[in-house]
Please model this.
Amino acid sequence: MTSFEFPGEYYEIMRRDFRHLDAETEFLASCAPPGGRVLDLGSGTGTNLRRLGELGYSCVGVDQSASFVEYARRAGGKGVEYVHGRAEEFGTNRRFDLVYSLFMTLNYLPHDQLRTLLETTRHHLAPEGRLVLEFGHLLNFVESYQQHTIAHHRTDDVLITRLTRQSVNPHAATWRNEETLLVRGADGRVAMYDNFFDQSVLTGPEVRGLLTAAGFTVTAEYGGFRAEPAPGHGRGPLVIIAAPTAEAAV
Ligand SMILES: C[S@@+](CC[C@H](N)C(=O)[O-])C[C@H]1O[C@@H](n2cnc3c(N)ncnc32)[C@H](O)[C@@H]1O
Model:
């Protein structure tokens, strides 16, 4: 289960502390022809799509959070369309040059739905299209596990205090995150939001196996969006580029 129902502007503030948007944009742009069609699965507040829209790509984003889609639509973006819904239920006749899912978003799907999503995604891709996935895998979860954390995220006007609780279900191979966000806004008032999500714990071989079964061939793997080599010990993010396998392309 996943919520992500809190104001998108606060997500944007926290995201800046975790991510390198310039590196992500450059990496994604290098995977699609100029002006190509792009689909973002779990597009959140539209951060990546706004940038790609500015570069001339024709963009569609799908996200299950009503609050984030509302924020994304309000924030606009040239040539960007947002669909409110679950990625695994998204249907279209359009074919995309690039489909991507960043920031461990596909980990929010249970294993069986992930497989279905990848199979559907193959049909959304043009024959020469590319799929870019950033996965959280087993060692990311193990290394970052802390029962309780407190973190602060701020701008000149806003202070967000994030209280996180994590628990693991070893039988289901899922990780539960529960967060309480205390936000002190520009007017000095404090608001509180709850956010929670379950993530599937996957290993590199499991992800590659799911991609192969869904009709993809992995063409490259990196340890980040600056094309860092995927570390041999398996720690750190796993960024995978995959292409439709020739005989599976439709
Ligand atoms: C950590 S955020 C990442 C958002 C965006 N990709 C980014 O990089 O900022 C995870 C996003 O996945 C979305 N999400 C989770 N499960 C989803 C699903 N089954 N279908 C569509 N969106 C989903 C959440 O609503 C949330 O916006």
About this structure: Residues 62 and 108 are 14 Å apart (CA to CA). The chain has a mean pLDDT of 92.
